[in-house]
Structure formats: C-alpha cells, structure tokens
Input
Amino acid sequence: MLSALPATRASELIDRFTDLPILVVGDVMLDRFIVGRVTRISPEAPVPVVRFESEYVRLGGAANVAHNIAALGGRATLVGVIGADHAGVRLREQLAVSGVGVDGLVEDPGRPTTEKVRVVTERNQQVARVDYERDADVAGDVERSIVERVMELGAPAKTLLVSDYLKGTVTRPIVEALLDVSRRAKAAERSATVSAKRSVVPLIVDPKIPHLACYAHATLITPNHHEAETATHRVLRTDEDARAAARDFRERARCDGVLITRGEHGMWLSTPDAEGAIPAIAREVADVTGAGDTVVATLALALAAGATTAEAAILANHAAGIVVGKFGPAVVTPKELLGSIQRS
Output
C-alpha cells in the first residue's frame, strides 16, 4: 500500500495548480439533462410519462476533463471536434463560462456535436438517454487541422492529456503528434543539460482498449478495472490480481506507467518508481459519471506541479472520492481537495 500524502505537501502541490497550462485532446461532449416528475404510465406503451420541470447542460467527455482542470485552478486548452450545430454553439458557450480555451476546437460539418440527452426524475433517477453522435474516426482536413492545433497549442503545456471515448477524435496521427510534442520537450531538456529522467511534458491517457496500440510510449494510462481485465484477459479480485494485471498492461501498452481505477477498491499504481494500492476514500456515492475525467485532470495538474506519480495518484484518488458524491459530470475545487486530504 502506498503511503499517505501529508497535508502540508498536498497544500504545497495544490497551491501550484494555479494557471498551469494543460492541453486536453479528445472527444468533447455536451450532456443535456431534462428533469421532470413521473406521474403515471403512458396508455400508449408501458413507459413512464415525465412531466417537464427544468433543463440544464453540463460539459462531458474531454470537455469535462478540461472543466475539472479549470475548476482546480489550471489553465486548460481543449482540442477536439464539434459539429456545425446548436449543440456546438452551446458547448463553446459552456466552455467559455468555465474558463476553458476553445482555440483548439475544429468544426466538422459532416458530423453532429456529440450530445447525450438524459431524461431524469427530480430524484436524479435516469429514465432514458438519447445520444446524438457520429463515431467514425476523423480524417482528411479535419484530422490535419487537429494535428496542427496539437502541435501549436501543445508547445506551452506542462502536461498533455488524451481523453478517449471512441467518438472519433483520437486517431494514431493525433496521438503521434502529442508524442512528438513530448519528445521535443525532452530533447530541449537534454540540450539544456538538465536531468531527463522523465519527459518535461508527461502524456496521460484515459483509454479505450480498441486503441491500446496507439498509446505506446505514454507516461501514464488510466484504465478502469473492466478495461484492465479486457486488455490483460485477467480477472481482478485482489491486490495481487491488480499487481499482475498492471504489470501486464504496461507491457502490452508499452507505456511507462499504469493507474487502474477500481471503484470501491480504490486504485492500483504501477510505475518503474512506485507500485501499490491506494485505498478508496469512503463516502456516499451519488453518481460515478465523469469520475475518470476528474482523476486524469487531477493527475495532469499534480504532475505539472512537480508531484511524483504516487503523490499525483493519491490526490486524484481523493478528487474521485469527492466527485462521486455529486450528480452527473461534476468538478472538484482546490478547497474540497485539500479538505479531503486533511480529513484522511
């Protein structure tokens, strides 16, 4: 088990989050919630009739990652694809309100903005969901535009982050562009005769297993336990299972490190410098939606702030424990994060 993070060290790292530039590349989404009251069953079919009461939108996918970075004090720039539609306009507006840079958004008139519309009751029980999406990989001019934005906007970033939801934005050329940005930073560091033990600009990936081969040479990949099981053909029940799966995952993905998120069982970190379990933060769970987004956002900021991978993982574990107590895609503040560390 990895040792706890002292509150003084946590406070020092969290204070450094302010204005750290982070580049987020991935599948941006808009989550729309239609809230109502279920009063009866429809006479037309055995489904509930929801009487409309309110509607609101939240940022989802890579947009939620960027929102989490901004909420923690960082300076997030988002690269992704949106459609030429009203949902794209609303998404831009929400990002602007959240303080996220949108210069990296590429408009593709051939696809809709990915939007998930959830019908929920006033007690936050989901009745139905409608998805507007086209998940074919970007190609041609759209892909080239995304690569150009990665190369341009990635230069000043302290951490690079991929948020892959298999909605078409994450392709091999785009990941290779991110790795190129990271390698250039590493080469610059070596030419300055400074220790190059790890890249100046870490690359973190929130993965999807069909794209596993694309992530080779990433600094840290964060599969959940189902994804780790799928990638390694192992069943994860114990810490020893997690240890074996994490080592196997690192070898298969050819990455530097892996952080397996295991829900109520916490996390398992495996890197060349640190390995072990991170216990879950016990609290009431309201909704796990977006918890992985919060994890990678916190990891990115912590590594940019100078944390070790183990310290970053512990901070991310606390952030996840906070956000699952909230409904829908949500964010964590620096005050909440430090408070969780102090109470542990």
